Amino acid sequence: xxxxxxxxxxxxxxxxxxxxxxxxxxxxxxxxxxxxxxxxxxxxxxxxxxxxxxxxxxxxxxxxxxxxxxxxxxxxxxxxxxxxxxxxxxxxxxxxxxxxxx
Length: 102
What we know:
The protein is of the alpha+beta class.
């Protein structure tokens, strides 16, 4: 089960520096206890805003941080267990061995 991702002050400041939010649609977004809030309510991001965050490397600053975008929210993903990781490794090896690139 995933929970709402908590953002650091560094991530929040980086979002402002990189212009993640569309200046043509001004929003009053604050970071309160690690959550993005707009007028006290949780922020629902657009897909474009999330994609700009990913492209800007907002989430890659923390080692092994896994997030997903669900219904306008950035969610912290559960850690991958060893069994899950083994299956993924096998699937990746199988796909490279099976799929031909011409």
